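Quick start: read one record
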Amino acid sequence: MALLAANVLFGANFSFYVSLTRYYLNFEQIFMLQVLTAAAFFIPFAILSRRSYRITVEDFGSIFIVALLVIYGWMYLLLWGASCTSPIDASTIATLGPVFTLIIARIVQPQKTSWVRLTGIVIALAGAAALLVDKGESLLGSNTEAFGNALVLCAVISIAANTVLIKPQLQRYGALTVMGWYYIIGFAMVAPFFWVEIDGLNLLRLPWGALAELLYILIFGTVLPMWLLYLGSAHLSSLHTALYRYMQPVVATCLSLLRGQNNIDRTNIVGASLIFVGIILVASGNLRRRPATERRADNRGG
């Protein structure tokens, strides 16, 4: 339930990112406000938690690396990419989490991968490639849709790595403690640049609709779903966690269509279909390889 709610909330972000960055704010300003809001909420949990003072040097090193992946790899790159592309493309690419979660998990803990999973990985990546090269634009071109899609893909890889790497620390110290340290580290890194980006920004001059979208992104699109995501991640497998991302394009597409921000074209359908089929194969390959007793335990937990 935590993961389901988190991904529904995350999905709405894509539509709001696009409308805000097109008309009112640049993505760096939204990023700085996201980090500030999350830091204000989560840092007290780290400071006040007794578990913080039991974190080993090795675990702190893992938390530091994952903090970089979350703050700059996920939040920054996702905002940058979403400001260049459409909500439908961005949210569809975001569903590739299970593929990269599986790839990174196998790099961290090498083991044989079934042909079903390998086939799923290839098909899903083909779907991503369809979205990336759709309009024939250079992936390195400044602020093109292809460039934005490539940035979103990098953000997905970052959050997939985070999902795999941080699970032991989440189980040892708790989601709120670990996330508090994310934002202690993250805020320390963005603090020198904060006023450069925020200087002169008067939020009260924003139209009420834009202000409501921004508040949604900061609270219901960042703080709450991030906590729900890690709460769910601590109790389920990395692949199981990533599968819930399919709620994001459903929500993002519905909002985008209702608000007239984008239309569904043939490439969206082909890309999303390939990614969906690929992820189903990855998931079914996972279930085929695991013992029945373990699958039943996961079902009870979910």
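Residues 29 and 199 are 10 Å apart (CA to CA).
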